[in-house]
Amino acid sequence: MDWGLKNRISQIIKPYDNRALMLAVDHGYFLGPTEKLENPKKVIAPLLKYCDSLMVTRGIQRTSVPATTDTPMVLRVSGGSSIIGEDLSQEDITVSIQDAIRLNASALAMSIFVGSKYEHQTIVNLGKLVSKAERYGIPVLAVTAVGKELGKDERYLSLACRIAAEQGAHIVKTYYCDNFEKVVQSCPVPIIVAGGKKIPERDALQLTYDSIKGGAVGVDMGRNIWQSEHPVAMIRAVRSIVHGNSNVDQAYDFYKKLVSEGPKKKNKSEKPNQTKSEKPNPPKK
Question: Is the pTM value of this prediction over 0.85?
Answer without folding.
Answer: yes
